[in-house]
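Researcher: Sequence of ADP-ribosylation factor-like 10 follows. Predict its structure.
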Amino acid sequence: KVPLLVYVVDAADHARLPLAKQLLHQLLQEDSSLPVVVLANKQV
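Model: Prediction complete. Tokens:
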């Protein structure tokens, strides 16, 4: 078990954002008490 999740998303890759969202939701369903930091990389 990990103490924290750091989730980095390539914000410039619009085609893959729905997949990134889906995967994050799946991770949160496994452990809803897990602290999460979401970083959006390459924002324009």
